[in-house]
């Protein structure tokens, strides 16, 4: 508090305003609620009191290096976790009271510990396949990550991209049809990119040329793509099944890397779509933050007039960024047909585009953070699958809500006020 | 480089913003373009900079006719511009802003920021600027941001440099430094166009003066012309440059503020333990450069800020922590600093705007029904009383000129029973005639025994209106001094130096 410099400091030093002393109780309250929840679930309900074990399997059968299974006594683990969580919640409250910033490590530890406790509780008397859980996380996150990357590109340039859902769906549809018709799944990938690009070009044209409200165009495009693909599905694909039976990409094992315990199977026993995803994340990050093109894209999204006055064509830059975003999202759409199901179904993206949009915001418009956010949602989805298989005590309807509950909590609660690109959603009119 | 504009005409629909304007700037000359807000100065410069296309006329550089399709062409031809609203991306660093649009790249399309940093250092060394190329723009004070704008223009080898109202955001000291920089630039052969409406600055630095009014050149003057001559040329009639007022008739402390602090949404203390009193019948002016907490202070008085601590008492009754409704009902009148954003609803009619703060009961609303007849009659009275030039009370407020919009705001706020009047930037962007009107009304309000707080960044206005002056710097009141304090002292205080003999807390 005493740091407010009063004397006339040299003009070029940044204004250092003292950080103010508003206590934000958001984190202690959240921690507290989860601690109470864990006390109730793990201790009061008394699950595993008869000495059941919760087993975590760390290796798959075909792994070169076999890790031993870890068996924890369910009830004891639950009590331990609940007590530690309560202590951590108290610690966070004390930190806030003392005006100390809660370290991010504490939040991560809290979340991990709660997760371990929850898994041990849910898997009482059965076995959780940890590699399977994580492999599925990466696989299920793929379309989310592609969608989020597309969204990040578009929104960094200042165009709100609500049409991710439509881009994913268009990519899924066209990749299935082209891959089936030509018998070449790689052509299917290409078709997915073209379809995504077309959807985003329509978005860009209406938004940049005709200045229509960006959210409205996005929503309308989603509905349009759903209607169009559903119509074509029932009129064209359903009668002639050979147009809707593409080859599914096999999982490719990367030599050596795939044998690293836990990480290997998770990251390096995936389809080509996931490998392309790794490249896409790196490229979007590098492109946005290390190149001339990226500087201009960000400038156009932050302060288009400033970009205009140094001779940057604002609308052209935006158009290209939005289109590229569509290419990436569309590619992600191919996951549904060529990476997973092997056929197109009506509305098969099932709201994933909106979850991807949430990942963009949760990830603070940053490609790496958005990827992590998408992984979180992917994990929640897959957790629900795995627990459904091993039979969890939570009703399956509740588990189906999990990814969306996580989304709401993430976007509303933990992010707080994250800062969007300043000109996001605003048309540039000279 | 010699710049010549020949017969430039620019129209926006029926409005002729520039009418056949011709202007010559010789190499190494500082040419001041003087005119009121809305006279067409900025339009002319945007034409020069390629942002607008003129319907008629030519732009010549060293006697060669130029065709600019956009700012890029103008820059390549050697024209640089320091914009009134800085064209800097706040979340970018200095170096990134300077190279934006002209980036150098290394292998693989990578941005070469080290070259950019070197360029910033080289230019800032040449002018003794001392700027860190890696500082984020949003962390820099406006005066430094302006230097970044200058560096940005110079990094493109600008030979003609346009300064669009450059002193609006500067302290008097920073203004003096800017004048020196402009002189330096001119001596090194750069031609400078200096757009302003402040007479003092023009006379201090210009080699030649062109005055424009309503889009046409009305005359040329030399820097030796007097303020009165320039002003009458600019406005088109003789102008009163001073406000006539008598000594204040003090009637005891009305508003008392103690240890008031405001914390903004970014968790920063923007007003830091501020204390002052205002007596009924006096004008307390709050001076200071834009962004030193004045906005938040006035908003705190009105109950518009969320995290406020300290004491605000009006006539012995506490105001802090109450709703805006309650505070307005306690008799606080408020002219917000941004009249188009906060003062008016542009799509509403004048009559609707005049009753905005009285929608909760009689006489404007009875049994949930708007009293349209009463409202029309009220509006007609106010339009006459405040001389609001309009096409009747049903005209949309957004279509009024700035001066008339401000009159609507004033009419609304002053027609209630007031116990305190707060006017933030009451004459920003107004023409001289409207400024006279607003100043007269403020002094009349004071003389009727109401305590008045005027927040202004214009030293001229502060000196003209104030009985006492509180100077704010970085959220604190540096000192409270009498209204006749010399400008030089005020200028130093605006830069954070304490007054020689501060009568703080008076």
TrEMBL record, chain A:
It holds the Pfam family BPD_transp_2. Its main location: membrane. GO terms for molecular function: transmembrane transporter activity. It comes from the Bacteria. Keywords: Cell membrane, Membrane, Transmembrane, Transmembrane helix. One of its GO terms (cellular component) is plasma membrane. It is found in: Cell membrane. The keyword Oxidoreductase does not apply. The chain crosses the membrane at residues 27-50, 70-97, 104-124, 130-152, 159-180, 186-208, 215-233, 267-288, 319-342, 348-365, 372-392, 398-416. InterPro entries: ABC_transp_permease (IPR001851). It is a multi-pass membrane protein. This is ABC transporter permease.
Automatic annotation (TrEMBL), chain B:
It is a peripheral membrane protein. The keyword Translocase applies. It is found in: Cell membrane. One of its GO terms (cellular component) is plasma membrane. It comes from the Bacteria. Keywords: ATP-binding, Cell membrane, Membrane, Nucleotide-binding, Repeat, Translocase, Transport. InterPro entries: AAA+_ATPase (IPR003593), ABC_carbohydrate_import_ATPase (IPR050107), ABC_transporter-like_ATP-bd (IPR003439), ABC_transporter-like_CS (IPR017871), P-loop_NTPase (IPR027417). Its main location: membrane. GO terms for molecular function: ATP binding; ATP hydrolysis activity. Residues 3-239, 255-499 form the ABC transporter domain. PANTHER family: CARBOHYDRATE TRANSPORT ATP-BINDING PROTEIN MG119-RELATED (PTHR43790), GUANOSINE IMPORT ATP-BINDING PROTEIN NUPO (PTHR43790:SF4). This is ABC transporter ATP-binding protein. It comes from Cryobacterium gelidum.
């Amino acid at each position: 508090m005493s740091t407010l410099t009063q004397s006339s400091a040299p003009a070029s030093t940044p204004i250092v305003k003292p950080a103010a002393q508003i206590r934000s109780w958001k984190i202690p309250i959240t921690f507290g609620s989860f601690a109470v929840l864990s006390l109730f679930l793990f201790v009061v309900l008394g699950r595993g009191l008869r000495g059941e074990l919760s087993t975590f399997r760390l290796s798959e059968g075909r792994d070169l290096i076999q890790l031993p299974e870890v068996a924890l006594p369910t009830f004891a683990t639950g009590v331990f976790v609940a007590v530690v969580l309560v202590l951590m919640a108290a610690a966070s409250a004390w930190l806030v009271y003392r005006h100390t910033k809660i370290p991010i490590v504490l939040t991560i530890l809290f979340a991990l510990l709660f997760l371990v406790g929850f898994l041990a509780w849910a898997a009482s008397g059965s076995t959780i396949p940890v590699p399977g859980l994580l492999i599925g996380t990466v696989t299920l996150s793929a379309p989310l990550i592609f969608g989020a990357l597309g969204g990040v590109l578009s929104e960094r340039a200042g165009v709100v991209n609500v049409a991710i859902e439509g881009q994913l769906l268009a990519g899924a549809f066209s990749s299935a049809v082209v891959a089936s018709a030509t018998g070449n799944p790689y052509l299917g990938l290409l078709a997915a990119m073209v379809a995504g690009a077309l959807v985003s070009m329509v978005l860009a044209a209406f938004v940049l040329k005709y200045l229509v409200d960006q959210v409205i165009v996005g929503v309308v495009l989603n509905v349009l793509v759903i209607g169009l693909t559903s119509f074509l599905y029932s009129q064209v694909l359903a009668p002639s099944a050979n147009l809707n039976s593409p080859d599914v990409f096999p999982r490719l094992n990367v030599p050596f890397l795939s044998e690293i315990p836990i990480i290997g199977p998770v990251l390096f026993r995936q389809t080509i779509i996931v490998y392309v995803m790794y490249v896409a994340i790196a490229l979007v990050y590098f492109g946005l933050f290390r190149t001339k093109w990226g500087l201009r894209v960000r400038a156009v999204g932050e302060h288009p007039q400033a970009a205009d006055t140094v001779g940057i064509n604002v609308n052209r830059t935006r158009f290209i960024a939005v289109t590229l975003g569509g290419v990436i999202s569309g590619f992600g759409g191919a996951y549904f047909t060529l990476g997973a199901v092997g056929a197109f179904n009506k509305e098969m993206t099932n709201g994933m585009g909106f979850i991807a949009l949430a990942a963009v915001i949760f990830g603070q418009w940053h490609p790496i953070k958005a990827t992590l956010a998408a992984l979180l949602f992917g994990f929640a989805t897959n957790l629900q699958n795995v627990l459904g298989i091993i039979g969890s005590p939570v009703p399956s309807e509740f588990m189906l809500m999990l990814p969306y509950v996580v989304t709401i909590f993430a976007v509303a609660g933990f992010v707080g006020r994250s800062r969007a690109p300043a000109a996001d959603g605003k048309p540039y009119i000279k | 480089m010699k710049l010549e504009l020949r017969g430039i005409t620019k129209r926006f629909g029926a409005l002729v913003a520039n009418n056949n304007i011709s202007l010559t700037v010789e190499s190494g000359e500082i040419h001041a373009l003087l005119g009121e807000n809305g006279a067409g100065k900025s339009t002319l410069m945007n034409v020069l900079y390629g942002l607008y296309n003129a319907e008629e006329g030519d732009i010549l550089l060293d006697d060669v006719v130029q065709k600019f399709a956009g700012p890029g062409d103008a820059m390549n031809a050697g024209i640089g511009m320091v914009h009134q609203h800085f064209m800097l991306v706040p979340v970018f660093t200095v170096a990134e802003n300077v190279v934006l649009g002209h980036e150098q790249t290394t292998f693989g399309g990578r941005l070469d920021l080290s070259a950019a940093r070197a360029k910033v250092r080289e230019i800032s060394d040449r002018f003794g600027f001392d700027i860190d190329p890696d500082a984020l723009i949003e962390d820099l004070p406006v005066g430094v941001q302006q230097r970044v704008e200058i560096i940005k223009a110079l990094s493109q080898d600008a030979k003609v440099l346009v300064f669009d109202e450059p002193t609006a955001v500067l302290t008097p000291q920073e203004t003096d430094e800017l004048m020196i920089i402009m002189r330096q630039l001119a001596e090194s052969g750069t031609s400078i166009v200096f757009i302003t409406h402040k007479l003092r600055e023009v006379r201090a630095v210009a080699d030649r003066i062109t005055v424009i009014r309503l889009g046409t050149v009305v005359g040329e003057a030399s820097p030796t012309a007097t303020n009165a001559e320039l002003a009458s040329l600019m406005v088109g009639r003789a102008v009163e440059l001073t406000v006539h007022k008598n000594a204040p008739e003090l009637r005891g402390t009305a508003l008392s503020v103690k240890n008031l602090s405001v914390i903004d949404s970014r968790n920063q203390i923007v007003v830091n333990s501020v204390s002052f009193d205002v007596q009924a019948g006096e004008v307390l002016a709050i001076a200071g450069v834009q962004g030193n907490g004045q906005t938040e202070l006035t908003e705190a008085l009105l109950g518009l800020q969320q995290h406020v601590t300290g004491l605000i008492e009006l006539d012995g009754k506490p105001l802090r922590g109450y709703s805006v409704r309650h505070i307005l009902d306690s008799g606080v009148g408020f002219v917000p600093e941004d009249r188009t954003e906060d003062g008016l609803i542009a799509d509403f009619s004048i009559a609707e705007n005049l009753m905005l703060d009285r929608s909760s009961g009689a006489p404007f609303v009875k049994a949930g029904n708007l009293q349209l007849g009463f409202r029309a009659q009220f509006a007609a009275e106010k339009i006459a009383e405040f001389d609001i030039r309009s096409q009747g009370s049903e005209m949309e407020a957004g279509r009024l000129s700035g001066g008339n919009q401000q009159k609507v705001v004033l009419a609304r706020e002053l027609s209630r029973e007031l116990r305190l009047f707060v006017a933030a930037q009451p004459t920003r962007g107004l023409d001289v005639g409207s400024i006279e009107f607003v100043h007269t009304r403020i002094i009349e309000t004071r003389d009727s025994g109401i305590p008045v707080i005027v927040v202004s960044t214009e030293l001229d206005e502060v000196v003209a209106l104030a009985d006492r002056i509180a100077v704010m710097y970085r959220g604190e009141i540096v000192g409270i001094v009498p209204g006749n304090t010399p400008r030089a002292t005020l200028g130093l205080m605006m830069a954070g130096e304490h007054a020689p003999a501060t009568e703080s807390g008076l």
